[in-house]
Amino acid sequence: MRVRRLTAMISSVPLGLALTVGFAGEAQAASAPCGPAAKACLDLSANQAWLMNNGAVTYGPVPVTHGKPGWETPPGTFKVTRKSRHHRSSQFNNAPMPYSVFFNGGIAFHQGSLREQSHGCVRLTKAAAAKFFGTLKIGDQVQVVP
Q: Residue 87 in contact with residue 111, Cβ under 8 Å?
């Protein structure tokens, strides 16, 4: 009976949507649009980010917001250069940027509103920002795809 229910559930998933179950029991995408060296992957057009290890998704996708017109988050391959748990912006009125992981000059993953675009940074929920902060290390590769 249980196998029959599971088969019915799987057959109701839209074609092309592959899911795997993560360690925390949450549904995760089976792949991300980044190369195997990336530890963090950001898809600007999908507004999603992932943590990865050797090309395999370890966390995500998670929703993000990023740079607004005139302040676009640039695509490319970068390295994590610094981290700051309680960072505040020196450029934008001392704005709080908790769990900042900088990877392209002043551009960072950090906790922030998902309702509005940023000045180039990648905003995440508190839980996702904490996970990115705790997982990424200085020197890890971040890949940003258009």
A: no
What is the Cα–Cα distance from 115 to 70, expressed in whole angstroms? 18
Instruction: Tell me which range, 48-62, 77-91, 96-110, is most confidently predicted by mean pLDDT.
Output: 48-62
Q: What is the pLDDT of residues 2-28, one digit of tens each?
A: 344 333 443 333 333 333 333 343 444
Active site residues: 110, 121
Residue 15 placed within a domain? no
Q: Encode pLDDT of 56-68 as tens digits.
A: 999 999 999 999 9
Q: Give first-to-last CA distance, the chain, whole Å.
A: 45
Q: For residues 32 and 57, is the Cβ–Cβ distance under 8 A? A: yes
Taking 3-state DSSP, the helix, strand and coil percentages for the chain, each rounded to the nearest 5, stand at 15, 40, 45
Structural domain of 84? 40-144
Residue 131 belongs to some domain of the structure: yes
